[in-house]
Amino acid sequence: MNGISGKVALVTGAGSGIGRATAVAFGEAGATVAAADVDEAAATETARLVEEAGGEAAAFHVDVSDEDSVAALVESVVDRFGGLDFAHNNAGIEGEGGPVAEQTLENWDRVIDVNLRGVFLGMKHEIPRIRERGGGAIVNTASVAGLVGAAGLSPYYASKHGVVGLTKSAAAEVAEDGIRVNAVCPGVVDTPMVGRFTEGNEEAMTALVEPQAMKRPADPAEIAAAVVWLCADDSSFVTGVPLPVDGGYVA
Ligand code: NAI
């Protein structure tokens, strides 16, 4: 894709699932990839996979809910690779299920801290560095859970609606700096996160994909392709968009 080769891309939550697939896709498109995760061993494995696919990569530790950690990550990436052009703020957790009246404050805080504060902190520290390059792109991972509601996982749904709002606000702020900010809203994707809901239970997967016109989970590479496209010149007039990549979640 145009405008990816030779650029520096930072991916959080790169140790697994969608983040790992995006890191590999950026590498295949010719970007230098900073693969960051709270699980540093998993990030290291992703960096190895990017290199196996012909790209250049390095692994970094980050806890996206911790401002010092995020600030240190962005500085380390710039020190290592000379700048930052693209960021995929993707790290996220599902948290505990249960109705609002039975949710614990602890679970609420944990999910909001990783999924929403993490995206805020990422953009806060990435934007000045991307601005220094004269422009670039940010993609935040929201979800169909950022567009619709459903019973039983309210902190997660609230966090993802927050990511959509944050994405639109940031897009309005930085458009004149040549920075585009979008979100991907995946439907059900075949990753370890979904595996924790469906393991050993085929009916659970069937129920999860039922609201999608395409009654199958996405391969993580299908989300990664959208993320790379949202950073490429091919999407040069697209900003502030929560892009559904959901197999037709039309319910
Ligand atoms: P995953 O569980 O396979 O990977 C998440 C990665 O984030 C893990 O490597 C984990 O170590 C990392 N992580 C967790 N907390 C972190 C923290 N505080 N700091 C840094 N890294 C941290 O999950 P998956 O499915 O790849 O999810 C990635 C993103 O996509 C999440 O934001 C998730 O909410 C979102 N998503 C996933 C969907 C799915 O069906 N799998 C659907 C829609 C959105």
TrEMBL record:
<dbReference type="InterPro" id="IPR002347">
    <property type="entry name" value="SDR_fam"/>
</dbReference>
<protein>
    <submittedName>
        <fullName>SDR family oxidoreductase</fullName>
    </submittedName>
</protein>
<dbReference type="Pfam" id="PF13561">
    <property type="entry name" value="adh_short_C2"/>
</dbReference>
<comment type="similarity">
    <text>Belongs to the short-chain dehydrogenases/reductases (SDR) family.</text>
</comment>
<keyword id="KW-0560">Oxidoreductase</keyword>
<dbReference type="InterPro" id="IPR036291">
    <property type="entry name" value="NAD(P)-bd_dom_sf"/>
</dbReference>
